[in-house]
Design brief:
globular, 4-stranded antiparallel beta sheet, alpha+beta
């Protein structure tokens, strides 16, 4: 289970984001899996209150990966990034489902230019991509989503599973 959202008073604001990133890197190992839980924690409590939802997500993962059942076990996962002028286009794997916003406007995306200063992006869904821009970033080079201890996380699939947090930069 991926680390949940929680506003840790001892963190500079991104300790849990870095932990989630480290957890995601372990997926490169064979026989591993991870259920995203960033949307079901509580800002003021590091322990999950919605254990049934967490258990259900873990059960979906086991059913798909261990038992070979055809069930949706993951929300959208970052695939790649393209720059088109002043916009970034982020492509996701949604495992046969549509991307959708939990609420409008779509929240949780930040972009940065070469200066490395992230700003909240204007985000819209176009098919399997999220298109990002901001008037102050004329040449974006990096994106991050749901980055922080207790971030906004507005992207999910129509299977109602949340997108996994990530950060990426153009190569």
């Amino acid at each position: 289970m991926q680390a949940r959202n929680y506003r840790d008073p001892l963190s500079p604001g991104d300790n849990r984001a870095k932990l989630r990133e480290a957890q995601a890197s372990a997926l490169a190992l064979p026989g591993t899996g991870m259920a995203v839980a960033i949307d079901i924690g509580a800002s003021d409590d590091p322990h999950p209150r919605n254990k049934a939802e967490e258990g259900g997500r873990l059960a979906r993962l086991a059913r798909a990966k261990v038992y070979g059942e055809s069930v949706t076990f993951s929300g959208p996962v970052f695939r790649d990034l393209q720059c088109e002028g002043a916009t970034l286009r982020v492509r996701f794997e949604a495992f046969g489902h549509r991307l959708m916003a939990r609420a409008e406007p779509l929240a949780g995306f930040e972009i940065a230019g070469a200066d490395g200063k992230f700003v909240t992006a204007d985000a819209r869904i176009e098919g399997d991509r999220v298109v990002l821009s901001h008037p102050l970033v004329s040449a974006p080079v990096a994106v991050r989503y749901a980055w922080g201890d207790d971030p906004a996380c507005g992207l999910q699939s129509d299977a109602l599973l949340p997108a996994a947090p990530f950060r990426a930069a153009l190569k």
